[in-house]
Structures are given as C-alpha cells and as structure tokens.
Write a structure and sequence with these properties.
This protein is of the alpha/beta class. The chain is built from twelve helices and 18 strands.
C-alpha cells in the first residue's frame, strides 16, 4: 500500500482584468510557502478561465469581486453549479468586509491568509492516504454506521409494533365487512411504525454521531447527492402506494360483495334523525334492528341535506343523498356480534348534527322474528299509533313533548293555544293548522323559529290516517 508523504500543492487560478489585482495576489500567495500554493495563471474573462480549466486543472479560482467586466453569476454557474465544481472565492480589495468564500462563509479580507492556511492544512498528518485508500476507508465507516442504524431501526420498529398491539386503536370489530378493513389498517400501522423508526432513528443517530466536535471550525464535506439513493426513495414509495392501492381494491371488493338473500332496509336521514323502513314487513322504526350473521343491504337516502350513515363498529359508511330514488346509495353490512351500537351522521348537516344518533340492535334470528311480529301488530288507540309514527318519522327530533325548546315548537300544551306567527298574525292551533303544518310546513312559521327546517315531503310519506293519528297524539299532550 503506497501513501504519499508530502503535502498536496494547491493550484490557484486568478480571474481579474486589473493587472494590479492579479500581481498583488500572485505576490501574496507565492510568499506563502507553508501553504503549498501554486499560481497556475491569471485570466481576465470567463472564456479564458474556461479554456484554462482543463489545461491548468486549478483547485481554486479567486475572482475579483470589484471587476465589473467579469460576470460573477456566470462564474458561479460555470464553476460552482456546473459539472466541474470548484472552490471559488469572491475577493474585494475595496472593502475589508466583502471577501467571500462562495457557499461556505463570509470573512474580512484580512482573514484570507487564515482561510488559506486552513484550506491547505492536512489535519496535522505527514502522510496522506491515496484516493483509493480514502474511498475504501470511507466505505467501511459508512457501512459500519449503516449497519448500526439499521439494527436500531429494526429494534425500534419491533417495539412500536409491540406497543401498538397493546393499544386499542379501533373499536370492536362487529361485522364481516370490518375484517378486511382492519387487516389493511393493521398492515398500514406496521408500515407507519417502520417509516417512523426509519426517519427518527437516522435523524437522531446523525445528530449524535456526526455532530460538530468542540473546537472544530473546518468546513463540512460538500455533498453533491447520491443517484442510487434518490432512485430508491422514489421507487420504494411509489411501489408501496401501488401495493396498498391493490390491497385497498381487494378490501373494497370484499365489503361490497352482495348476498342474494340480503335483508333490505331503507334508511332515511333528515335533520336530525334516522328512520328505518322494512319493505318486506311494512315496518317503520327509529331503531335499526338487524339479525346477526345475515347481510343487510341498506338503501340510503335523505329528505333534506346530505347525511352520512356510520356505525364505527361496522367500519363501513355511506352518504345519504337528497334527490329521490335516483340518488339512493347502497351499503352492505353483515353484523357478526350481538349487541347494541349507535348509528351516527358523519357529515356536518346542521346545528344539531351531533345529536343525530339512532340505536342499532343486533339480535338473533329468532329475536328478530319476534320483533317483527310485535311491530306488525297495530294498536287500536290512535294516540298510541300517533306517538309511534312521531318517533318513527323523526318528528320528536325537532319537537319536544316535555316543553323543552328545540328547533321547532314543543308539542306539550300547544293544541288549542294561540301562537304568534312570523308575520305578526295570531293563529289558533287546531286540527286544520296542525294538518297544514305537516303537509305544507312553510306556510305558517311560528315567530322565533327558523323557516325551512322541517322536511316538505311528509305529505308523500304519511297517509291521511297517519296524520290524523299524529294530531290525536298532539291533542293528548294538551289534555288535563
């Protein structure tokens, strides 16, 4: 192994059209024998500097900062930002504060000697390794650091995955559709743990191991980039995204796979209540009843604004859109665990959005059949039927029956009373007024309550007998 035993001679090219500038620097630098500096030439233009580049092979170019005939930007673009990157000094003799070592530091002109000494200093070593020896040594050091950091990344990733396994990140998995979604979530959590460890470990390792040592004022190594690394961190994320896109497509296909024997349930959203209709049985309910291990296809729609039906334990959710039958959206759910859950609206739909909840009950097939039998029995009492319709069609989400204020007038004691309307007129709350308020809710608005809140399609959803039963129920709330 051969090593050079002398200090490398630094080759300097001076760029200036002023003769005194070049002569002065030549004299100054030639006197610095201890710096091993050799003046290889003086040029007066970028063209001459370019021609001298290959011929003279300089290590440093000193440019006259005050020479207006020289275009400093062209020198920077050609020699610092171009293919052959050199150290370049912009030096002004007019102001002691204008001497610059490009892209490194600013210093007074009087400090140029100190800078040259530092630049040519060889770390107090009398023996200089060859270029091949330096590269081999650097590769060994880099590999050592890479192996240590890699081991730390693996350890931190394993600890994070272990920790995540003891944290409840998702609610109970209570449907067949939740399984592929949770599997995908689990894989994403593991990848996120790895990426977090990869970033944080390398960052902290670099801060601790490669920090500047006390008293070290040398320039850091100039790093141009690594094409292989850039290709890897471009291709790897792209491949990861494509893989997850494929897995996401598979999961979506599993969640929408139809069952020809699915139970059809119409889900209607309105401000701020859910209504569930079972066309096969003629049942309307404010509670979603579902038999366990049987797929239900929910036909989602809205009476007013956009809502979004979501039961977190089932994972899947879907928007309920206004606009009639042509905008009905399907959502398939196969509940797997009996119990009581809560349906929520996941789309901001008004000022009582947070209260738009509905009970969801998953029961056995026999219990579901018993519930159907009980719901299909119609009471002979119109008041009981009216209360049932009021609950089923979401009337009680806006009208209280205990006198409390909601977005609509309370029904308690309202029948037979005198109400002041928004236009200042007085109206008696009787059968005709209540009937009109149901089928044409915008005709007469009670003073102090906002218009346009009550759905306008109850005339299409309620039969005349159902409306009369609701009126009977309202009457009962005013009876002594």
């Amino acid at each position: 192994m051969i090593k050079s035993t002398h200090r490398k001679v630094r080759r300097v090219l001076i760029a200036s059209s002023h003769g005194l500038f070049g002569q002065g620097l030549r004299s100054l630098l030639q006197d610095r024998k201890q710096a091993n500096v050799e003046i290889v030439g003086v040029v007066s233009s970028l063209q001459e500097a370019t021609q001298a580049l290959d011929k003279l092979d300089p290590d440093l170019i000193i440019v006259d900062y005050d020479d207006e005939t020289l275009n400093r930007d062209e020198f920077l673009a050609r020699f610092v930002e171009g293919e052959k990157k050199l150290r370049l000094v912009l030096l002004s003799l007019q102001s002691p504060k204008d001497a610059l070592v490009y892209d490194r530091r600013s210093l007074a002109a009087a400090q140029i000697d100190e800078w040259l000494e530092e630049w040519t200093h060889l770390e107090e070593k009398s023996i200089i390794p060859t270029k091949q020896e330096n590269q081999a040594g650097n590769r060994r050091k880099d590999m050592k650091h890479l192996i240590i950091a890699g081991i730390l990344v693996v350890v931190v990733t394993a600890l994070l995955i272990l920790g995540l396994g003891h944290v409840r990140l998702l609610p109970t998995q209570a449907s067949a559709q939740a399984r592929p979604i949770d599997n995908l979530f689990g894989l994403e959590f593991r990848v996120i743990a790895f990426l977090f460890a990869l970033i944080v470990v390398f960052m902290l390792y670099s801060v601790i191991v490669f920090r500047r040592k006390p008293g070290d004022t040398n320039d850091a190594a100039h790093i141009e980039g690594n094409t292989k690394l850039e290709v890897v961190w471009t291709v790897a994320p792209l491949a990861t995204v494509l893989i997850f896109a494929y897995l996401g497509g598979q999961s979506l296909a599993e969640t929408v796979r139809p069952d020809p024997q699915a139970l059809e349930i119409k889900v209607i959203g309105q401000q701020w209540a859910w209504r569930f209709e079972y066309p096969k049985y003629g049942i309307v309910s404010d509670t979603l009843m579902m038999p366990v291990n049987k797929q239900a296809v929910l036909k989602l729609s809205s009476n007013d604004v956009i809502h979004s039906f979501w039961v977190p334990e089932f994972r899947v959710k879907q928007d309920a859109l206004p606009g009639g039958d042509k905008f009905v959206r399907d959502l398939r759910i196969t509940p797997t665990i009996e119990g009581e859950y809560k349906a929520r609206c996941a789309e901001l739909c008004g000022r009582q959005h947070a209260t738009m909840l509905a009970p969801v009950k998953v029961i056995s097939q026999q219990s579901f059949e018993d519930w159907v039998a009980s719901e299909t029995q119609v009471s002979a009492d119109p008041v009981v039927r009216g209360q049932q319709y009021a609950q089923q069609y979401g009337c009680l989400a806006c009208h209280s029956i205990d006198g409390s204020a909601l977005v609509g007038p309370s029904w308690k004691g309202v029948y037979g009373s005198q109400e002041t309307l928004a236009d200042g007129s007085i109206v008696t709350v009787d059968d005709d007024y209540i009937h009109e308020s149901i089928v044409n809710p915008g005709a007469k608005i009670v003073q102090g309550f906002p218009p346009g809140v009550m759905p306008t399609n109850f005339a299409d959803q309620l039969s005349e007998e159902q409306i009369q039963d609701i009126i009977a129920f309202i009457k009962s709330l005013s009876s002594p």
